[in-house]
């Protein structure tokens, strides 16, 4: 049953982690652990699928609902806002009620909003429903991170975040392709049918496979005032705030690339749509490959050392990108090579910064994960309009990328000081849930 971690670890019912020397995830049989991690991957994919699957439909929505392109693009902004604010709401709820109830309720909201999007009569209704979709998808994102923190700690959590980053990297690439295929046999409304079906499938898998990972004795039921206190306490942790800012600023560098790359490579370098698709995919492969290399690097170095090295390397590659973009040195390859290297460093920063941040607040993992996700979406979302304001060329994209990496590096070394962090963080004893 989903609510029981495993009969194979029943003998540990009365043991705490400090007694057993293991996290709950490490006590699980390999097969059960694999199924849980697989479903957690599906949960992390729901947000990117919701954001990106309908991108090919934007021109069709513009025509069908008689709206301007800018107004239709605001429905995407609404989804991002829903994801950001939804995490702030769901995180404390999951700390008070446990993980499963807010998770399943949030996905149900996502499914209902998807069905209603199919019936949306105008852009105003569609935009409102997209915000609600984001709110529902936020539950999947924040609870997945909180469950990782419930089950694993330290290096094990960093390795699992690396695996989940594979899903986060692949989903945005596949989502527009899936949306395009749907448009071959249905209108833009068919995309939301697929999202509804995907939500139902993920909800069913979560209900069947995921256990409740937060014991009743560790739940926090302080109401609104308790939630405010929890967020206030998080903001007093200098290192935690620095780590989530590092994650958000690295996300800003990534978003600058995503939002500006099509203009840079198709308009400035005159690449065809097919050539641009290959370039974009290659960058994504570099990002994803780095997240998986992180698992190997963690066998030799701590997450703190990898984070510090990645920040410095990312800033250096970003400055090289700005130099080649401004001077034209090396032409297309002069831009691509340092850009790919920056993306690779982002792929190393993204798993390690969240793992280190969440390891500091196991007692309020849902709230801590919520603030982390909200900052990532919030700070990252600022990068897209900045690229447009600066001119959408290679130099504009490079400036925002460098700004993101420079700020992340400054916060990392002046606020977080990873070289001074202990090799691992320990959490209060946690009773294994059965």
Report on this structure.
The protein has about 425 residues and is an all-alpha fold. It has 2 domains: about 25-220, Up-down Bundle (Growth Hormone, Chain: A); about 230-420, MFS general substrate transporter like domains (Growth Hormone, Chain: A, Up-down Bundle). The chain has 17 helices and no strands. It has helices at about 15-20, 25, 30-50, 60-65, 70-95, 100-120, 125-150, 155-185, 190-210, 225-235, 240-270, 275-295, 305-325, 330-360, 365-380, 385-390, 395-415. α6 packs antiparallel against α9 and α12 crosses α14 (about 330-360). The longest helix has about 30 residues, at about 240-270. It is globular and about 60 Å long. Residues about 5-20 and about 425-434 have low confidence and may be disordered.
Structure summarized in a few sentences:
The protein has 17 helices and no strands. The protein has helices at residues 17-20, 24-27, 30-52, 58-64, 69-97, 100-118, 123-151, 154-183, 189-209, 223-236, 238-268, 273-297, 303-327, 331-358, 365-381, 383-390, 394-416. It is found in: Cell membrane.
What fraction strand?
Answer: under 5%
Unreliable runs? 4-21, 425-434
Mean pLDDT: 80
| Tally of individual domains | 2
Please state the CA-atom Rg, rounded to the nearest Å: 21 Å
By DSSP (H or I, 4+ residues per run), the number of helices equals: 17
Span from first to last CA?
A: 10 Å
Helix/strand/pairing class, anyone?
Answer: mainly alpha
Helix and strand sequence: HHHHHHHHHHHHHHHHH
Fraction of helical residues: over 70%
Q: Please, what is the CATH homologous superfamily of the largest domain? A: MFS general substrate transporter like domains
Please give the number of β-strands. 0
- From the 3D structure, determine the CATH topology of the largest domain: Growth Hormone, Chain: A
Q: What overall form do the CA principal axes indicate?
A: globular
Largest sheet: none
CATH class of the largest domain: Mainly Alpha
What CATH architecture label of the largest domain applies? Answer: Up-down Bundle
């Amino acid at each position: 049953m989903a609510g029981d971690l495993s009969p194979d670890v029943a003998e540990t019912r009365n043991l705490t982690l400090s007694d057993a020397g293991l996290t709950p995830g490490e006590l699980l049989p390999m097969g059960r652990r694999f199924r849980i991690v697989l479903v957690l991957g599906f949960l992390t994919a729901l947000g990117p699928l919701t954001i990106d699957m309908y991108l090919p439909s934007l021109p069709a929505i513009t025509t069908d609902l008689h709206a301007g392109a800018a107004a239709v693009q605001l429905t995407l902004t609404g989804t991002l806002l829903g994801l950001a604010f939804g995490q702030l709401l769901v995180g404390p709820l999951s700390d008070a009620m446990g993980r499963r109830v807010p998770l399943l309720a949030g996905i149900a909201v996502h499914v209902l909003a998807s069905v209603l999007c199919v019936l949306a009569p105008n852009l105003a209704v569609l935009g409102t429903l997209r915000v609600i979709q984001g709110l529902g998808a936020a539950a999947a994102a924040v609870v997945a991170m909180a469950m990782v923190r419930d089950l694993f700690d330290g290096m094990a959590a960093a390795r699992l975040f690396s695996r989940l980053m594979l899903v986060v990297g692949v989903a945005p690439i596949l989502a527009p392709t899936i949306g395009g295929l749907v448009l071959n046999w249905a209108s833009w409304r068919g995309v939301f049918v697929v999202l509804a079906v995907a939500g139902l499938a993920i909800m069913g898998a979560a209900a069947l496979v995921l256990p409740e990972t937060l014991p009743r004795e560790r739940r926090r039921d302080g109401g609104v005032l308790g939630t405010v206190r929890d967020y206030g306490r998080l903001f007093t942790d200098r290192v935690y705030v620095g780590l989530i800012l590092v994650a958000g600023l690295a996300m800003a560098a990534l978003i600058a690339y995503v939002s500006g790359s099509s203009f840079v490579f198709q308009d400035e370098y005159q690449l065809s749509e097919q050539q641009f698709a290959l370039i974009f995919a290659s960058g994504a492969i570099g990002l994803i490959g780095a997240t998986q290399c992180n698992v190997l690097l963690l066998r030799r170095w701590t997450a703190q050392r990898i984070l510090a090295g990645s920040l410095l390397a990312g800033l250096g590659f970003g400055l090289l990108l700005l130099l080649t973009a401004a001077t034209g040195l090396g032409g297309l390859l002069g831009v691509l090579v340092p850009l790919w290297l920056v993306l690779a460093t982002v792929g190393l920063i993204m798993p390690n910064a969240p793992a280190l941040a969440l390891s500091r607040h196991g007692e309020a993992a849902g709230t801590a994960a919520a603030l982390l996700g909200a900052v990532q979406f919030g700070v990252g979302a600022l990068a897209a309009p900045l690229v447009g304001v600066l001119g959408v060329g290679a130099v504009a994209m490079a400036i925002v990328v460098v700004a993101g990496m420079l700020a992340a590096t400054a916060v990392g070394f002046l606020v977080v000081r990873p070289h001074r962090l202990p090799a691992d963080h320990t959490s209060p004893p946690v009773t294994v849930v059965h």
